[in-house]
Amino acid sequence: MAIVEATQFFVYVAGSDVSTRFASRLIKLTVTDTAGRNADTATIELDDTYGSIGMPQEKASVIVALGTSDGGVMQVFDGVVDDVNHIFDRGAGRRITVEAKSADTHGKQKEEQTIHNDDKSVQDAVKEAAQKAGVEMSFPSGLGNEKRKYIAQDHESFLHFAERMAREVGATFKMIGGKRGVFLDRNSGKTVGGGAVGNVTAQVGKNLITSRISPILSRPAFADVRARWYDVKKAKWMEEKVQIEGDGGGKSEDVAAHIRHSKFDAAEGKEHGKSAGKESSRDKGSGTVVIDGNPAARAEGICTVVGVRPGVDGAYIIDNAKHELARGSGYRTTLTLKRPGGEAGKDSRKAGKSSGGGKGTGGGGETQWPNEFD
């Protein structure tokens, strides 16, 4: 264990605790936890003035844990070394940067495979592909376990195939430690076992440093999602319609989202429609907050914004959590937020009585909200 700027941090490389050795040399430590699409990353930038730091080997295991000096420590990254970069600058000296990823992008996980699955669930198809890639998979109960007539992994790597399947069943695919993979129920804030992924609060006057939030983005909000499939017996195209979950967010009751590619049957169309609905609901709003470092913040967890203002305060899904420990600025956590919930996007305040004179301000009449463009 080592302490930098009142922050505890642990770094293990290839099973060895290098925290104390890194403490005096650490320039910046960055961990990015993402909600699928890309692997989680850890970047460790060190002062290598005397060239004395041992260079870790490719694929060596890397574990990072963070916490405040007076609080608990939590693991924020588990992966493998992906790249080691050394920089020499006559003015700035020598630096070494170790980059790690939660997925092993140099092994079987990136190898293209061709596997055809008949009458299998998405869970079974992904598990088979994972086994060939040397990955152990875990799934939450009830997600992706409906059988499909046909599933093809056609010249796709395991990482690409698992990500595509996750998108079709409404899941977030994550790799852990280079050898384990999980599907999380997207937007649920739950782990594979059903516990909370990581709930944090961003509160004005307590831990919130900056915020920039759009609680309502009307452009991507649809009323429902529709998927087409061909009914061979009836010899005609059919359509599955799935209502978008949630409310608010500028949803238009007249606008539907259409899945581009046709599905095999009604079950597949409905499953993919539910997934697309989750994504549309997720995109109702977005924003970014920077808070005092908190290792509990995780992608797919919940961030509750408090004290900013009515209409902005509320619960949001964490789409991306970036933990940064720097020599000069200490430990900060930057959260990219999605899917506003609770009171976010709703300002239920009513006009009150006024005491002045004139329109909107006079005679104890009802106040009208001011319009600066009038």
From TrEMBL:
Source organism of this protein record: Bradyrhizobium valentinum
| Compositionally biased spans, kind Gly residues | 354-366
Q: Which SUPFAM superfamilies match?
A: Phage tail proteins (SSF69279)
Give residue spans, biased composition: Basic and acidic residues: 262-285, 340-350
Q: Which residues are listed as membrane-spanning?
A: none
The ranges of region (Disordered) come to: 262-292, 332-374
**Signal sequence residues:** none
One Pfam annotation reads Phage_GPD
In its UniProt entry, what is this protein called?
A: Late control protein
